[in-house]
């Protein structure tokens, strides 16, 4: 199997925290002046040059970045088209695969239920899903799936939200447990209508209930609460939400968060009427971008087997900015409350269990909240996450700022776009500071 193709399986992987730490590395000391930097487009020459530099033949079809300020319209920089073969220009209303940027949305939906007292942060998962009462843990992580020991600690809602439940992930684990998960259709996301050799070619679990039941039969990789390890915790949280709320997960999410926040273009399935706005996702092989999920024939035009709470949403940069605004404004947007202040405040704070092993968390030291990285030190107030197809969404809650980057290629490490974006943003801000 082509080694580059194998890397597609790891597009959502342990390096996700490193991405977030690098992008967040602007530092809180720069953010007060950032409002001035983006108020005038002429003060963003490096970002504009960066976007221009990465768009064109042999590069990317289109790139979009944005910066949002308290009380001001979001500033977008967009260039190129939605695909190499699509003449439609990239705009804030183009549709992108959020992939793991879905996780903070699911996390905040769960935090709302917790804030309402309908479930508890440290409530055992088996209270809601009884099949998780007696779990087995691998004696050797990623080793034998028959040499097991009983779990000492029950999985809690906190664990699911913070990737500390000990659950595996078919794009992270190796060996027999990875094979077992794929055999049971426990894969984390949709990729393409095409069958891609070397990747999962089986049948995914048909619904969330079946997904949750089958996942309960898989051994844990780690003892619950002991170690941060990227997992299917937020996908399983989707099932928890629908049991606790009494509604299908996708309907609850639409009625509780997406709809009230005005995220009118975000869903688990792209309506036919909106298909023209859907970008094409590419995979980089030997420096060449190969379309893996063309917008006109995307798997996201089909009804998914179930709503993937960890990686299933498709939406626009304008929509995701509205989600970030809700977080930056303590649960409010356009003068109305979407999430409780407590849900947002606690969800963007450190939810990691005391004493958890953080060695799997790459990048600068950080905490973790409801589905997203929580900055510490100079990055205090930063919260957000990234997606496998080269997307990032973050909020600086201290200064009410929002930052986004959108392209559509996998793996994100194939090109240095994100690092270039960080440098360009920092250069523009530093240039402004020198003028003061």
TrEMBL record:
InterPro entries: Beta-lactam-related (IPR001466), Beta-lactam/transpept-like (IPR012338), Diverse_Enzym_Activities (IPR050789), TAT_signal (IPR006311). Residues 51-425 form the Beta-lactamase-related domain. SUPFAM superfamilies: beta-lactamase/transpeptidase-like (SSF56601). PROSITE patterns: TAT (PS51318). It holds the Pfam family Beta-lactamase. PANTHER family: BETA-LACTAMASE FAMILY PROTEIN (AFU_ORTHOLOGUE AFUA_5G07500), BETA-LACTAMASE-RELATED. This is Beta-lactamase family protein. It comes from Novosphingobium mangrovi (ex Huang et al. 2023). The lineage of its organism: Bacteria, Pseudomonadati, Pseudomonadota, Alphaproteobacteria, Sphingomonadales.
């Amino acid at each position: 199997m082509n080694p580059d193709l194998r890397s597609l399986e790891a597009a959502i992987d342990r390096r996700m925290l490193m991405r977030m730490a690098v992008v967040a590395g602007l530092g809180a000391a720069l953010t007060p002046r950032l409002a001035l930097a983006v108020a005038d487009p002429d003060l963003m020459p490096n970002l504009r040059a960066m976007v221009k530099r990465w768009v064109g033949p042999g590069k990317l079809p289109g790139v979009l970045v944005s910066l949002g300020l308290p009380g001001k319209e979001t500033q977008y920089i967009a260039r190129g088209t939605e695909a190499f073969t699509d003449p439609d220009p990239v705009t804030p209303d183009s549709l992108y695969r959020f992939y793991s940027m879905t996780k903070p949305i699911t996390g905040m939906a769960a935090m709302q239920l917790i804030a309402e007292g309908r479930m508890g942060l440290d409530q055992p998962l088996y209270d809601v899903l009884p099949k998780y009462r007696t779990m087995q843990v691998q004696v050797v992580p990623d080793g034998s799936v028959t040499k097991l020991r009983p779990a000492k600690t029950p999985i809690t809602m906190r664990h699911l939200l913070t990737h500390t439940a000990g659950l595996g992930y078919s794009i992270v684990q190796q060996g027999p447990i990875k094979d077992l998960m794929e055999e049971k259709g426990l894969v984390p996301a949709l990729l393409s209508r095409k069958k891609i050799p070397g990747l999962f070619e089986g049948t995914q679990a048909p619904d969330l209930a079946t997904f949750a039941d089958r996942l309960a039969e898989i051994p844990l990789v780690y003892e619950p609460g002991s170690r941060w390890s990227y997992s299917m915790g937020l996908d399983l949280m989707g099932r928890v939400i629908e049991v606790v709320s009494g509604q299908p997960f996708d309907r609850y999410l639409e009625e509780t968060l997406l709809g009230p926040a005005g995220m009118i273009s975000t869903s688990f399935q792209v309506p036919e009427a909106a298909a023209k706005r859907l970008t094409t996702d590419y995979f980089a092989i030997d420096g060449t971008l190969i379309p893996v999920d063309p917008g006109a024939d995307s798997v996201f035009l089909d009804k998914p087997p179930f709503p993937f709470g960890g990686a299933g949403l498709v939406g626009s940069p304008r929509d995701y900015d509205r989600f970030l605004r809700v977080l930056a404004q303590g649960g409010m947007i356009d003068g109305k409350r979407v999430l409780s202040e407590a849900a947002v405040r606690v969800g963007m704070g450190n939810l990691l269990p005391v004493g958890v092993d953080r060695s799997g968390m790459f990048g600068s030291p950080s905490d973790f909240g409801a589905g997203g990285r929580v900055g510490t030190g100079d990055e205090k107030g930063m919260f957000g996450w990234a997606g496998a197809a080269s997307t990032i969404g973050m909020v600086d809650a201290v200064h009410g700022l929002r930052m986004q980057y959108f392209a559509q290629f996998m793996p994100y490490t194939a090109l240095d776009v994100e690092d270039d974006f960080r440098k360009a943003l920092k250069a523009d801000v530093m240039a402004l500071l020198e003028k003061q």
